[in-house]
Amino acid sequence: MMRTGAVGVAAAATMAVLALASMGRVAAAASDVIELDPTSFNKMLSSDDIWMVEFYAPWCGHCQRLAPEWSKAATALKGVVKMGAVDMTKHQSLGGPYNVQGFPTIKVFGANKKSPSDYNGARTAQALVDAALKEVRSTVTSRLNGGSRRSKSSSGSGSGSGSGGKGAVVELTESSFNKDVLGSDDTWLVAFVAPWCGHCQRLKPEWAKAAAELKGEVKLGQVDATVHTQLASRYGVRGYPTIKVFPGGAKSGEAEDYTSQRDAASIVQFARNLAQANKPPPEVKQVTDEDVFTSHCTDHQICFISFLPDILDTGASGRNDLIAVQTSLAERYKSRPFGWVWAVGGQQPALERAFDVGGFGYPALAAFNSKKKKFAVLRGAYTEDSIKEFVNSLVAGRVPTAAVIGGEVPQVTAITAWDGSDAPEETFEDEIDLSELDDIDLDELDDTNTAAKDEL
């Protein structure tokens, strides 16, 4: 019976691949994509189906480019995996629990709907189909091995995150720890517990509550130290519960001790502070083409565009100092949905016209909301403190804004990116060897001038 089910799913997967290969281009108007609202989203969470869900904004350029590929994949996967879409300008609350901060964000809701995985692959129909079928195979394998069929009764393993567990807490073993914790870039808090420990029993509901609230932000795991003794010994666990902290990013295997209170609110606050501290700031990029402008500027709620002087005026060192101001501010405001880009004065004339900058010199700074098509310009000095005050006042609504001149998002001129070098040294052709002046007969020069005067 199990074999028949597996063959059936495999056949469906094969049909999806064949359908994709034979379809060609699919019009978005005839889409099999399911638009989700709060009601249908909750139904999705309680279903047995595997879903891929795109969180998007209609004004987002990357979302617009993804739309035909998403539609094509949805048609190919019809009857196998469901493809949904959430308009975040209408249903912003749906993205909150999943830490949706940029568009598009794609989540894969497999057997355990409480712990969706991020899709970070290519944004092509083929890549989307491949990822969906991979999730199908994983789900089928889990069911064949006795895993829970329904997501609501799933043991909370998440996508590739160990086996067992309670709710959003990931139950970790000797074998899964290296891959799921040390092998990921996620921030983890791991509790080493013993079943007979009274303090562990009191921690259990608080840990589960914190894990549910932190879903999509920070992962909370649990290790039965009486079973996985080598793992507990590795981290010097001598009492229960012992909570170890593994900050986000590449991990060396070292852990920090958690010493805060053990109630859910304290755990959540600590975890969020830790995740925020380890979150990388957005990259500060030079505007060189439309793709850069879209991904690093217009896809963000507010974009700060610096217009820098020519390299002849600042040199490489001076330009790097100005870019460093932006980089520092990007770090300071990394929790905000801000983008930071720069352009050389005069190289992006459409941007300068749209934001009415350049007339009072460089460097200059404009803040741009592409959705509302409004902007504001820094009128003070281009310093970190001045820009910081400008940003804070802008967020507080104390800075006057204006409609983008021309009424539309300006077009970007494609240019070659600055390579970091100084301006080339000026050279002069036919330079005069001053030593030749010694050979000039001044008496002859005087006679020549006298003759010229006589002719006048």
Side-by-side strand order of the widest sheet? 11-13-12-14-15-16
Distance between the termini: 117 Å
Looking at how many chains there are and whether they match, the oligomeric state comes to: single chain
Query: Architecture of the largest domain, CATH level 2?
Result: 3-Layer(aba) Sandwich
What are the segments in which pLDDT stays under 50 over at least 5 consecutive residues?
A: 1-10, 13-29, 148-166, 452-456
Helix content: 25-40%
Strand content: 15-25%
Number of strands: 16
Q: How many structural units, i.e. domains?
A: 3
Overall mean pLDDT stands at 83
Domain Thioredoxin: 7-138, 161-276
GO biological process, one term: response to endoplasmic reticulum stress
EC number: 5.3.4.1
GO molecular function, one term: protein-disulfide reductase activity
Summary, kept brief:
Helices cover 39% and strands 16% of the residues. The protein has 456 residues and is α/β, with parallel strands linked by helices. It folds into three domains: 2-153, Glutaredoxin (3-Layer(aba) Sandwich); 170-278, Glutaredoxin; 285-403, Glutaredoxin, CATH 3.40.30.10.
What do these coordinates show?
It contains 14 helices and 16 strands. It has three domains: 152 residues, Glutaredoxin (3-Layer(aba) Sandwich); 109 residues, Glutaredoxin (3-Layer(aba) Sandwich), CATH 3.40.30; 119 residues, Glutaredoxin, CATH 3.40.30. A six-stranded mixed β-sheet has the order 11-13-12-14-15-16, sandwiched between helices. Strands 1-3-2-4-5 form a five-stranded mixed β-sheet, with helices on both faces. The chain is an alpha/beta fold and 456 residues long. The N terminus and C terminus are likely disordered. 39% of the residues lie in helices and 16% in strands.
